[in-house]
Amino acid sequence: MGDPVRGTERWRQSAILVGLEFAVFAGVYLADWSHHIYISKTPYLFALAWLSLRVRGLRWRDVGFARFLNWPTTIALGVLAGVGIEATELFCTQPFLASVFHEMPDLSAFARVQGNFNWLAGSLALTWTLFAFGEELVFRGYLMNRVAGLFSNARVGWAVALVLGNLAFGISHFQQGPTGISENVLDGAILGTLYLACGRRLAVPIIAHGITDTLDFLLIFFHRYPGMHF
Question: Which end of the chain is less packed: N or C, by CB atoms within 10 Å?
Fold first, then answer.
């Protein structure tokens, strides 16, 4: 008879399990594209990530849910990175991509935030839960580690994980059109690089992501976001 403990461990590390997870991941995307998911697919992807970690005997801390060095450094780096990402997007990447695709990102889903304090408050609450915490835990913490694990976490594996993880992150914003998808791929690449540069710790990317989206919503609220005229 085989050793059940070793059998369980082989299952946890098997390519079959990875394939099943990626199939479910893709299925959530297909459901979203078919308008069968409301508000956000992030909770479903988060549940998949959590289940994967539990099956493999891991915790969120094992994929980087921790601060970088200390909290003052973590917060300062996160804020600076978030402001830098927003400035780069508004003044560099977005104008360039808009000239390539001949359209601004489609942010019509957020039009109700303009001048409406209640919608602003709700959007900021989602920013720091679904978007900052949720998306960073899913795309940087779970997905990048899962892809890199296919390469035994070698340097090439993390390079592939950075590329594929941020393609998935960009495509997840398909409602925003080609300009929105492309700029989110680039923003995700910056957040993924931050994750790696911080020793694969998520706190700095989480704060940076939250700051960037907060600035977006504040600009929308005050009717100052480029190209939004609703």
Answer: N
